[in-house]
Structures are given as C-alpha cells and as structure tokens.
C-alpha cells in the first residue's frame, strides 16, 4: 500500500516540502555497453504468452472471470472522473449505482486505474475478447486527454506520485504490448514529462513515517521502467530505471546482510523484482544476489502460508505514529497484536513476480515451491472483489477469526473501498497462466499443477500438453501429449521439496528418471501423440512452528496446503493427534483431527468462506 493518500487526511504540514535531501549518491551500476532492449542476460527460462495457456474450470479460472467481470462493469466516466476533474475538463459521473462514482480510496488515489488497465490488457492477451480491447482503448483515450505537462493526472499537486506513476506505466505498457493500442506509449511519454517534475531525482528508500510518504515507493520503479524501455517507450525509461535502483538496499542484501527489519513489506518485495529485472537487463550478479538473499530473508520471517509482513512491516519493528501501528517484535507476537498479518493480494503479486524471475534465472525448483505455497494459502482464497469496491486485503492469522473485506480499520488503510489489493488481485488472476509453464532450448518446465492446456511450437512441432488431476486435494497429476509428429523434448516436472516419495509413470510404466524432492525431474525422450505421464505427489503432513522460539505454536501443513482449524477458539491438541489428520473424503478440501475434546474440522484457505478459523495451534 502506498502512503500518499494519507495526505488528504493528515495535518496541513506538507511533508513534501522538506525534500532538502542534498545530493544522495546515485550509485548506478556501470555497464560497459548499452544493452539491447530485447536481450536478457544469464540465459533465463522463457515465458509463454498469456494466450498459450488455457485453464480448465477451477478456482484460478473462476477468479479471473470474477475479477474481470467487476472491472468490465466499472463505469468509464466514473473511472476517468478524478483525472478529468484535476485537468479542468468536464467530469460527468453516473449517479451512485454500484460501480459508479467510485468511492473510497479511488477518490484519493487512482493508482488502481493503472493496475486495472494492465489486468484488462492481460485478459485480452488470454481471451482475445473484443469488448475488453475496446474498453482498454477507450480508457487510454480518455486518460490521455487528462495528461497535461505538470503531471496532474498523477495526483494532486505537491506530491511525488512515484507510486501512481509506476502503476500507470505498467497499465499503459500492457495496453501497448498486449492490446497493441497505438495511444498507450505516446500517453506514457507525456505522463513521464509530468512525473519527472514531481518525483525526486534519486531513490529514497524510507521506512520511517515522513520519509515513507516522500519516497512513495519510488524504490519499486525500475522494474516497470525497464519493461517500458523494452516495450519501445524509449531510452529515457532505461535511465529512470537505473536512477531509482535501490543500491543501498540491494548492496546490503547482496552482501548477505538482513536489512528487512522495519521496512514496509510488500513494496520491498516488489523492489526485489527490480533487482531481478536489473540483473536480467544489466547482467550484474550483485542484483541477482540481492534478489535471492532478499527472498531468503523474507521466507525466514514468513508465516506457514508464505505470507509475510504483519501490519505490512518486516519484523521486528518499532511503533509508528503515522500509521497507528504498535511495535511488533516477532511473528509470534503478531498473533496477539494485529489482525493484519499479510497484505494478501499485493504481497502475493509481488512475491509471484519475484519467484517467477528467480525460477527463470536459476532454474531452481525451490522458487516454484515458494510461489505455490503463497498462491494456495493466500491469494487464491481471497474473498471476491465486489462492484462497490469491497476488496480482500489482509489475511488474518490470529485465533478464532474470519475472512473480512478491508474495512479501513487498524490505521493502515483509512478508507475501505478500492484499496491497492483490488488492483493487484486482478493482475494476479491473469498471471497464474504465465506462472505455470516455462521453456528453454531443449524443452519444457512444468512449475504449477493447475488443470490446463499449453499449446506451443518446439523444433517445428506443434505440441499440446494437457494436465488434469486431483492435486492439491489429492496426490495425482495427469498429463497427456498431442503432437503433429514425434518430438524429442525434455519434459521437466517440479518435485516439491516436501514430496519425499514422489513417483512418475510414463504410459503406465515407472519412468526412468531421477525424482529428487526440491528439483525438477527431467524426462528427455521422444514424445508422441497419446503419451501419458502420471505424477504422484504423496502429500506429507508436518507441523510448521511460527518461529524457533515458539516450537509449540504451529500450523498444520499437508502437502502444499496449510490446514486451518475451523474452530472458534485456539484448540489444544497433541503433536501426534495433529499428524494423524485424516481427509474426510477423497479429493475433498476437508480434514478432521481427533482431539481429546472431540473432532476438529480443518480446511485449506481457499475452501473457507464465512467459517471462523484458527491458523496456529497450541501443540502439547
Ligand atoms: Zn494491497
């Protein structure tokens, strides 16, 4: 979340006037020769396009359809109204029905406009849906009319607007590259003129109250600026990207120093995406080490779900007056001190981008494990976005709690409708597709086990790989291959680190393949139409303590899923009882534990609706 909109409700003290920061060093990485925009260093795995992956019915597909319906239903005059108003243009509204005259955060901060533009463009890349394309084009046209030289489109005067500029950049670049909208990059160019006037000329990585507002997450800019440059928006974006690389943060992380404590969580994971992107563009290993070490430190302080950042901050952190946040010394303390344990949609979106970069660069399956854990245990279970702007924001890991829409409580988000997470959820719902499969010169990597079909060309053959199965509520993933001619290809399947007794069968016989937990199992052979692969991922049950100091406060984890106790208090159970958890019916998302006081039901996050749940149990 970005702090900018707090300006509206804060004291009149203009925090942005105090930018007498002197000449902070611009430690841009030196590159010998200007890189080629389309080139990526380090021979990373390639992504497939959004449209090459088709999902079967299920939670992922439903989340995309549901979020897409909401954005498509938003009235365009209402979306454009704050921009038109600031530009001094006629700004008609539509009269207050749901989806009209967007309330809540949208009245103060329209960054989600950029995220929705991005999500619509990605949806068009998936579905080639004409009404979606036309809506993108109308919105870009309408937005372009409001972009004037002083940068009013970014927000009220006197603000830095780096956060808004970042999201608008993403939306306009996606409109250009996925919809082919000819107005998108020229609009970005004019928007950038205004952004340059407003933003500081150097990165401010700030996490105390005043500095955070000034920084406005400008340390997340490079990723989308590099992407804009790659999309043909001009070398100015390459220069901005390098200018805002967070060298002090990345330098410390690259040296192995854990500097997360007290930093804003989502935006600093998002910043790690800029480090990974900088590595791909500039080829400097320090950025890769920063991204890898940074993620490792995040995981060291993640909940069993993979969520991180109670009250949006990395622990430990001091009390913060502006945000009305208490000090939180540890994850275990956070269970009692807050209901805001993970900024679910933004945090998952940043985490999925980061793990996708690192998986592509390193080909290390552990990044796929990490991505899968967060996906199943958080964002896939987000409550549905509502047409009136109610959105899921925080996952709550306190005892006896429930899923809630953002209500503006807790001092972190002062208004409730259309928060940041209503933007990132729509992008995340599209990106499951590009997270599922990757390619390289000799074949294919299957990263996620989501019922789907990938269509691709390989060495001149046209191949379709279809996966189905019961995973993650069952053990089985089934693949079938069709190809217009027999093709030699390396098919690699991610074996999660927890899958200690996984097995693979090809056409009914045990595959001759090394199946090692935490690695990709690689099957290089000639594949023909009708070939069938069966992956058996026997799910194991473990207890995941909240931290080393509290071994008896633990979450129950089954395969990739955290199982949440559907109970209205913090049940006391023994380790043995928990580990004997039993699935109520085969392939159904329901489990039961027999405790001394009777049976306790358990469910994964995505199967919980209104039930009260408890994440961490006292284990005796
Ligand atoms: Zn958010």
Briefly, what is this?
This protein is an alpha+beta fold.
What does this protein look like?
The protein has helices at 59-72, 76-87, 111-127, 130-146, 162-179, 184-198, 209-215, 221-230, 235-243, 247-254, 265-282, 285-300, 331-337, 344-362, 365-377, 421-436, 575-579, and strands at residues 46-47, 53-55, 342-343, 394-395, 437-440, 443-446, 452-458, 461-469, 476-483, 487-494, 503-506, 509-510, 520-527, 532-536, 541-545, 553-558, 561-565, 572-573, 582-583, 591-595, 598-603, 617-619. It is α+β, with helices and mostly antiparallel strands. The strands form 4 sheets. Strands 15, 16, 17, 18, 19, 20, 21 and 22 form an 8-stranded mixed β-sheet that branches. It has a 7-stranded antiparallel β-sheet with strand order 2-7-8-9-14-11-12, covered by helices on one side. Strands 1-5-6-10-13 form a 5-stranded mixed β-sheet. A hairpin with a 2-residue loop joins strand 5 and strand 6. Residues 3-31 have low confidence and may be disordered. The structure holds zinc ion. Zinc ion is lined by residues 1, 343, 345-346, 393, 419-421, 424. Residues 1, 343, 345-346, 393, 419-421, 424 line the site of zinc ion.
Unreliable stretches: 3-31
| Helix/sheet category | alpha+beta
Shape: globular
Q: Are any ligands bound, and if so which?
A: zinc ion
Number of strands: 22
Give the integer mean of the pLDDT values. 91
Termini distance? 38 Å
Q: Sheet bearing the most strands, described? A: 8 strands, mixed
Helical content, roughly? 25-40%
């Amino acid at each position: 979340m970005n702090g900018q909109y707090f300006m509206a409700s804060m004291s009149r003290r203009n925090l942005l006037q105090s930018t007498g920061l002197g000449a902070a060093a611009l430690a841009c990485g030196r590159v010998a020769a200007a890189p080629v925009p389309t080139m990526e260093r380090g021979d990373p795995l390639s992504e497939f396009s959004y449209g090459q992956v088709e999902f079967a019915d299920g939670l992922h597909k439903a989340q995309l359809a549901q979020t897409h319906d909401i954005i498509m239903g938003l009235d365009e005059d209402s979306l454009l109204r704050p921009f038109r108003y600031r530009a001094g243009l006629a700004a008609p509204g539509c009269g207050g029905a749901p989806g009209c005259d967007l309330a809540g955060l949208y009245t103060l901060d329209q960054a989600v406009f950029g995220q929705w533009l991005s999500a619509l463009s990605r949806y068009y890349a998936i579905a080639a849906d004409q009404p979606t394309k036309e809506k993108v084009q109308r919105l870009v046209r309408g937005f372009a009319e409001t972009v004037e030289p002083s940068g009013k489109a970014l927000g009220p005067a006197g603000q830095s607007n780096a956060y808004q500029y970042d999201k608008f950049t993403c939306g306009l670049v996606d409109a250009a590259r996925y919809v082919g909208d000819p107005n998108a990059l020229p609009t970005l160019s004019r928007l950038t003129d205004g952004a340059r006037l407003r933003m500081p000329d150097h990165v401010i990585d700030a996490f105390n109250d005043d500095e955070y507002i000034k920084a406005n997450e400008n340390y997340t800019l490079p990723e989308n600026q590099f992407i804009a440059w790659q999309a043909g928006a001009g070398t100015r974006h390459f220069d901005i990207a390098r200018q805002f690389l967070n060298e002090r943060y990345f330098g410390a992380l690259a040296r192995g120093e854990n500097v997360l404590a007290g930093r804003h969580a989502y935006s600093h994971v998002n910043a790690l995406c800029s480090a990974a992107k900088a590595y791909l563009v500039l080829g400097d290993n320090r950025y890769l080490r920063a991204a890898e070490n940074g993620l490792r430190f995040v995981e060291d302080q993640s909940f069993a779900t993979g969520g991180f950042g109670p009250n949006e901050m990395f622990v430990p952190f001091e009390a913060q007056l502006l945000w009305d946040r208490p000090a939180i010394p540890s994850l275990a303390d956070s269970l009692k001190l807050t209901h805001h344990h993970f900024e679910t949609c933004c945090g998952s979106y940043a985490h999925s981008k980061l793990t996708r970069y690192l998986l592509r660069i390193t080909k290390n399956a552990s990044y796929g494990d990490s991505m899968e854990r967060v996906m199943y245990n958080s964002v896939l279970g987000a409550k549905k976005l509502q047409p009136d702007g109610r959105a899921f924001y925080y996952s709550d890991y306190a005892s006896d709690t429930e899923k809630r829409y953002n209500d503006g409580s807790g001092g972190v988000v002062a208004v409730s409708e259309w928060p940041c997470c209503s933007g990132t959820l729509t992008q995340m719902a599209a990106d499951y597709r590009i997270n599922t499969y990757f390619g390289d010169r000799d074949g294919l990597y299957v990263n996620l086990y989501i019922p789907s079909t990938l269509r691709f060309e390989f060495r001149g053959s046209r191949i379709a790989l279809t996966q189905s199965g019961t995973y993650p509520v069952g053990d089985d993933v089934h693949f079938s291959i069709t190809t217009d001619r027999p093709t030699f290809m390396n098919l690699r399947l991610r074996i999660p680190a927890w899958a200690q007794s996984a097995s693979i069968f090809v056409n009914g016989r045990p595959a001759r393949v090394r199946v090692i937990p935490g690695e990709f199992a690689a099957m290089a052979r000639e594949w023909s139409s009708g070939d069938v692969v069966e992956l058996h991922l026997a799910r194991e049950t473990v207890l995941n303590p909240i931290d080393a100091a509290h071994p008896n406060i633990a979450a129950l984890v089954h395969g990739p899923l955290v199982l949440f106790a559907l109970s209205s208090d913090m049940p006391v159970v023994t380790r043995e009882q928990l580990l004997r958890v039993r699935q109520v019916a085969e392939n159904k998302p329901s489990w039961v534990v027999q405790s001394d006081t009777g049976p306790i039901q358990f469910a994964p996050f995505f199967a919980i609706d209104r039930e009260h749940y408890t994440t961490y149990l006292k284990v005796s």
